[in-house]
Write a structure and sequence with these properties.
- The chain is α/β, with parallel strands linked by helices.
- It folds into two domains: 43 residues, no CATH class; 111 residues, Oxidized Rhodanese, domain 1.
- The chain is built from seven helices and four strands.
- A four-stranded parallel beta sheet has the order 2-1-3-4, with helices on both faces.
- β1, α4 and β2 form a beta-alpha-beta unit.
- It is elongated.
- The termini are far apart.
């Protein structure tokens, strides 16, 4: 008799726990939905990208391809050396953001007057292209534009790539 009584009390306790958890979720969800500063239900990369590219004029894939074909852009790969070696845009230089200051003379020399400097990295989650663009602008290079979604979109579009180099 004691065993059955104990099992019955355990079942009752589990049911009460489930009801309390469900009520907590319901009340919390309700407050979150009506709170103007509530936590979003679905994450978004857009706010991060907006902040990352603040103060920069970004470039679309189509625009980058047009500049590439016309030969009027200097492409700077902001990824690490290993990623650059595996593949990059043809003619691109590998310049991680931390090297911007020490290599500014080289970049200015290579970027003819009127040439657009385009920075790129892995994709939308990668801040290296924006960081490099900010660093180069701080060094006095006026026309620097990060390529949105960079390397990933370039490859996915089937545009020319090369590997190796420095």
């Amino acid at each position: 008799m004691d065993l059955n009584n104990g099992i019955q009390r355990l079942r009752t306790g589990v049911r009460q726990g489930i009801v309390l958890i469900a009520l907590g979720l319901l009340i919390g969800s309700g407050f979150n939905s009506f709170n103007p500063k509530g936590i979003p239900w679905v994450g978004s990369k857009e706010p991060e990208a907006t902040v990352m590219y603040e103060g920069l004029q970004t470039m679309s894939l189509e625009e980058a391809k047009t500049l590439y074909e016309a030969g009027v852009a200097l492409f700077l790969d902001a990824r690490d050396y290993e990623a650059f070696q595996k593949g990059h845009l043809p003619g691109a230089l590998n310049i991680p953001p931390q090297e911007a200051e020490s290599r500014i003379s080289e970049i200015k020399e290579m970027a003819d007057a009127g040439m657009t400097v385009v920075t790129y990295c892995h994709g939308i989650d990668c801040s290296l292209a924006a960081n490099l663009a900010h660093a180069l602008q701080a060094q006095g290079l006026p026309s620097v534009r990060p390529l949105i979604n960079g390397w990933g979109d370039w490859v996915d579009a089937g545009y020319p790539v090369e590997s190796g180099g420095s």
